[in-house]
Amino acid sequence: MLTVKVRKEDPTDLFEQVATEIRRAIGAGEARPGERLPPAKDLAAILGVNTNTVLRALRLLRDEGLLEFRRGRGVSVVGVPERSQVISQARDLVHYARKQGFAIEELIEIIKNVD
């Protein structure tokens, strides 16, 4: 079972806290590639949060390449946090670039020219 905890007094969104804790557990080897996570409903009950909060965290980690959803088989660990961190940073960069008025194509050119 994962050791995951959230602090409701923390100003960080609960889904982000859940995602961070699962990411930490994967990095610490508590959940390894190929292993299935407990159902979202069970995680939500343990954490004292809404199931939708856990589902949102799981979707974020899926988008980062850490988890895989399979119908009838649940959620499995497929990646490691290093790749996840790069994806997360890239997402932040894209968001920032868009706010500054850059198109994706322009951002790609900038990245290509970075040493």
Automatic annotation (TrEMBL):
<dbReference type="GO" id="GO:0003700">
    <property type="term" value="F:DNA-binding transcription factor activity"/>
</dbReference>
<dbReference type="Pfam" id="PF00392">
    <property type="entry name" value="GntR"/>
</dbReference>
<keyword id="KW-0238">DNA-binding</keyword>
<dbReference type="GO" id="GO:0045892">
    <property type="term" value="P:negative regulation of DNA-templated transcription"/>
</dbReference>
<dbReference type="InterPro" id="IPR050679">
    <property type="entry name" value="Bact_HTH_transcr_reg"/>
</dbReference>
<keyword id="KW-0804">Transcription</keyword>
<keyword id="KW-0805">Transcription regulation</keyword>
<dbReference type="GO" id="GO:0003677">
    <property type="term" value="F:DNA binding"/>
</dbReference>
<dbReference type="InterPro" id="IPR036388">
    <property type="entry name" value="WH-like_DNA-bd_sf"/>
</dbReference>
<dbReference type="InterPro" id="IPR036390">
    <property type="entry name" value="WH_DNA-bd_sf"/>
</dbReference>
<protein>
    <submittedName>
        <fullName>GntR family transcriptional regulator</fullName>
    </submittedName>
</protein>
<dbReference type="InterPro" id="IPR000524">
    <property type="entry name" value="Tscrpt_reg_HTH_GntR"/>
</dbReference>
